[in-house]
Amino acid sequence: MNIGKSIGLELGQSTRFAFGEELAALGDVFPTLVVVDGDVGNSTRTEVFGKKYPERFFNAGIAESNMVSMAAGLALSGHISVASSFAAFLTCNAYDQIRMGVGFPHANVKLVGSHCGISIGEDGPSQMGIEDLALMSSIPQMVVLAPCDGVSTRALTRKMLEYVGPVYMRTGRPDVPVIYKDGAAALEIGTANRVREGKDATIIACGLMVAIALEAAAELAKRGVECRVLDMHTVKPIDRAAIVAAARETGAIVTAEEHLLDGGLGSAVARVVTEEAPCKMAFVGVRDTYAESGKPEELLAKYGLTTAEVVAAVERAKR
Amino acid sequence: MIPNSSVPASNPSAVARSIRKSLLRMVHHANASHVGGGLSIADVLAHLYGGVLRVDPSRPNDPERDRLILSKGHTAAALYATLAERGFFPSEWLDHYGEEHSPLTGHTNHLVPGVDASTGALGHGLSLGCGIALAMQRDRRPARAFVVLSDGELDEGSTWEAALFAGHHQLEGLIAIVDYNQIQSFGNVCEILDLEPLADKWRAFRWQVVEIDGHDHDQIAGALARLPAKAGSPTVILARTVKGKGVSFMEGELLWHYRSPDGAQLERALRELDDSP
Q1: Is residue A175 part of a domain?
Q2: pTM for this structure?
Q3: Is there a domain that residue A178 lies in?
Q4: What is the DSSP string of A146-210?
């Protein structure tokens, strides 16, 4: 992957690998933690935990609905339970089970969906989670996380397990650039992190798009436009104060997400902006379509998730 | 440890009659709800809460209690009536079933003392029970998970995902009870999606099957006294029941799947129950 190279970012771990290793590393810290997986533990990386703690790991088979309600049942019995599959199957197939068994009773269940977005590449649209943020944000009181690199994924995995209540976290397939080379232990659920200062516009991004936002900010700086960049790793509850400050202090906001433009990060930011500090906005994301198979970076280019698109969006919002 | 229920199981038919009468008053007052399926499961609920379930109304959240998931959440009124009967909350609460500010929502709600899970979207309960039984098996704790299913919700694929899992993992602490009253929302089960041969289906999923008359108190007590029915297997009790049981004009009538009795009908129904042996 070439993303981030132009600004000197080093390629690091995928967020799914970071999640899997950290989950296993935290097994002794959280003795009541149990993990269920939908027969894709080698992909979601929960198999690392499963190998270390076989008595605390259950393969539910290819049955996401049952898996999620079982996770709720395990939580009802005093466990912290993690249920994991591909984001698409977990959130789409088991949505009703998430609503009734996790959301409504505010169960201590952590849902982790891998293979988010279109950067999964060759496996194609049936495997891509491009609606997970919208679906999970529509569960009342669900925390929704979309970390941008391996380092912050590890930090947020720990925060997720410490938090009491339902959490959804999406992880991605490809190795991604390291944003937090100096560590991410200070990250808090619900608090955006400013990864670049700027006064002329703000790019609010999550996941893989944070690296692309930083590239766009570097490109815009050459043109005399200084952009603030926020890593909005928590899509819900969204950091209203950071958004209001961005609107008031920089006057223009662009959101960037590897997700449909409907109901994801852009929608959440726009609601805060509209309610509290109206300013010009522009949106980068997947536009009302399913993607196709291809190489990850070719797909990102084809569906408009690029540095050039973010640059153009900032220019639109500044107009 | 929770002591076995202090309520004597000696007169479950009286308890079941009381549940039925409360249920009828509730649905009349609320002018909403599923009455037929509540009447069909009342006898089984009377036995479960009359000494089978290891629960203590003064400690409804005891971590070591047996759990009961009413997966057929549309018959919540029958469960609420049972829980009130058993002392989980004051009977006066039943007067506000389905009203604003009352925890007794139309479908089963976990905010009600003694209710272990919210249900009402069908096909979730057996999976919840699987998770509970799995936790107890793993943690070597004695608590059991009872799940009351409707026959109609056996149409749901997730029920069979759970059945497959429980059989494979030999969850002997999981007990499913099917209220096999043969009528679902739009007609007879055998005409909509026939479940037969139902016992064979469960056996094929490696469950131990017990078939009973769900209104015969000796048979209900017998089945619930011997659990698991076979060591190392989940148990399913197929309880053949009559929709609307106990009220002559409701018995076996699809009309009374979802319908509230008016004042005269309520009076007639209560009188019939009082006159029954």
Answers
A1: no
A2: 0.96
A3: no
A4: ---SHHHHHHHHHHHHHS-S-EEEE--SS--B-S-TT--TT--TT--EEEE--SSEEEEE-TTHH
At the top level of CATH, the class of B12-275 is alpha beta
Q: Do B129 and A73 touch (CB under 8 A)?
A: yes
Low-confidence ranges of chain A (pLDDT < 50): none
Q: 3-class SS at B123?
A: coil
For residue range A40-88, what is the model confidence (pLDDT) as tens digits? 999 999 999 999 999 999 999 999 999 999 999 999 999 999 999 999 9
Tell me the ipTM for this assembly: 0.94
Residue type, B159: T
Q: How many angstroms separate the CA atoms of B135 and B155, rounded? A: 27
Mean residue pLDDT of chain B comes to 94
Q: Among A56, A74, A99, whose Cβ lies nearest the Cβ of B131?
A: A74
Rounded to whole angstroms, how far apart are CA atoms A103 and A229?
32
Sequence ranges of the domains in chain B:
12-275
The answer to whether residues B266 and B28 touch, using CB atoms and an 8 Å cutoff, is yes
- Cis bond upstream, residue B197 (ω within 30): yes
Collapsed DSSP state (helix, strand, coil) of residue A316 = helix
Of B120, B121, B135, the CB nearest to A73: B135
Inter-residue contact A141 to A107 (CB < 8 Å): no
- Sign, CA dihedral B250-B251-B254-B257, equals positive
Which candidate in B108, B124, B155 is best for mutational testing of the A interface (most A CBs within 10 A)?
A: B124
Task: Please report, as a single letter, which amino acid is at residue A153.
Answer: T
- CATH number, position A102: 3.40.50.970
Nearest to B136 by CA among B98, B88, B171, B162: B171
Residue B7 has pLDDT above 90, yes or no: no
